[in-house]
Protein: Pre-mRNA-processing factor 39
Amino acid sequence: MGESQAMVAEGYTSTPHGDYNASAATVESNVDSSQSVNGTGPEGGSAAPVENGNATDNVPVTAPAAAGQGDNAGSALSPEEEHLWSIVRANSSEFNTWTALIEETERIAQDNIAKIRKVYDAFLAEFPLCYGYWKKYADHEARVGAMDKVVEVYERAVQAVTYSVDIWLHYCVFAITTYGDPDTIRSLFERALVYVGTDFLSSPLWDKYIEYEHMQQDWSRLAMIYTRILENPIQNLDRYFSNFKELAETHPVVAASDASETAPSESDGKADEGKSQADGTSEPSKVESAVSTDPEELKKYIGIREAMYIKAKEFESKIIGFEMAIRRPYFHVRPLNVAELENWHSYLDFIETDGDFNKIVKLYERCVVACANYPEYWIRYVLSMGSSGNVDLADNALARATQVFVKRQPEIHLFAARLKEQNGDIAGARAAFQLLHSEISPGLLEAVIKHANMEQRLGNLDDAFSVYEQVIAVEKGKENSILLPLLYAQYSRFSYLVLRDAEKARKIMVEALDHVQPSKHFMEALIFFETILPPPRKIEYLDPLVENLIKPNVDTQNTASSTEREELSLIYIEFLGLFGDVETIKKAEDRHCKLFLPHRSKSELKKRSADEFLSSDRTKLAKTYNDTASAQPVSNAYPNAPTQWSGGYAAQPQAWPQAQAAPAQPQQWNPAYGQQQAAYGAYGGYPAGYATSQAPTPVPQAAAYGAYPAQTYPAAATAPVAAPVQQPAAAPQAYYNTYY
Structure:
């Protein structure tokens, strides 16, 4: 047996769940060859859209090229190639540019296989789930006659998309047409069936195996294959049972006496590296050898298989609704619709309730292919594996998420930091935060706060303060930094709550006024800050600051709108109602009436009594804050404010903001997979629970945590992405308890 033939039979490794390698991502997939739960696709491929490559658009195989042909890796690039390479080097997530580059390279390169290898290697390192491009890559290698390279590409492909029915099918078809040794071909089929044999959409692979054994006229093996199929609730089960009965009645079927004859060894299918066999295909039941010539023996033989078939059909009836709702089981750069996202959660709920660990792992692996750019599913997978004690699988899934599939989305790194801290990997948690600060989302307030809080929990107060101070120093160097006032507000609050040093906390806020332009949100934070400090309250200090902001003055750079100025005035009046005296209250109310009442219509004032005046305004203000995610007040960051603080300022209901609809247009493969979901409910760390998110969209960060003001993620050095379509969803259900 040659080297490539041995590799086909044995593969690179016996399990895809080893140490994760970002350059050869161990990603499991289930890709429907027909893209529908009804029927099967054409032999050797599927009708997947171009984003997955066209697996049926084979590169013509011609006579082998001469030795060394096409090895000129340093050949000159065309102007178009240079242009496209410059784009993907600057932003490797530009999917459409990558596909254009591949097309241009294929057009220019012809027999320059080194050039083709370069572009495919680079593309597939970024998008390893695109099984169709693995197939096209292998076809290019076959075209120049490099059969050992064809095997190498397919081996890399099944490591990258281990649970893809399609890629295994293509590999098996290649083996059938290349090798004459039945044992080599059967070994490859068995490798494939370990991982995808129980996939509901695995019929094309089983059909190809049946076709091959039918050509070999090995009826006992064929009967054994049917037996294995009938044990699993897969598509077209009725057809398989009918064909089995026909086979048993028309051929001298011999029941298998040695289960190891065709079944893979148990070590070849470990889903958790030695703890549990991957739920590929169970070993055929050991049945005594008996030629099916005796009617009673034949009836008994078929009856055993019929019982398997009935049991499989019963389970199929439970999952068929979920399977039918999966309209896109393959990876795609465009967002999934809400119904399909919710269906994946419901399907996972059902399988987890069923309790079969192997089925759970297999379904999660299918899910994180179709939902590869949604952090919530990766997070759920990690938590599920961790809760069941399978730390290796949890680490593997987290590595894939943070290194490849959602590596540009902040929430996965925030989750990773927290998980590593929980597991005692403090250095790993700090590294995750540092990655956020330096590359993923510099200046992300949530990352700053959580990092500082972690250092405080660890007893490193100096390091906790340093986190704030370093980011504040960076933001001071920026002109009109939006983040700077929010940082000062959070830093002062953090200092007081940790050290109980009111003077230091006030000093931080005073320093802020030297570096930030006063705004409604900053002044609101300052007012709330006074509510949690011990008396005496610095009303004489606050009053002129409030007055300067709410009074229109052409000589100052007052950017607050009239609505913001009126709202701040009301907030200050309520503050004085709690902590001021009669004179300060009178002064503030007189000022409010002078500044804002003249602008109200007389008819409106006649309809409102004096008793309704302030309460109505407070109701309007509360509605403004609840309805406008981008205007969430900094005051929400102060949960310790007195509960009697009315008007909805300190006791905002903790609700997720309604996702805004975006124009329907194709989503580019953006650098942050959309930067974030509609809200960070992915890991259930906040009151809204584990939210079923919309497709990734670069929307503003809502202050739905009850702790942080509005802030959009500072974009990493990447190009913007077109917003996918948002669709209304039912109220999300909580999947996990509190993250913290």
Observations:
- Confidence is low (pLDDT under 50) at residues 13-74, 255-292, 602-740.
- The CA atoms of residues 136 and 145 lie 14 Å apart.
- The two ends are 56 Å apart (CA to CA).
- The first helix runs from residue 3 to 10.
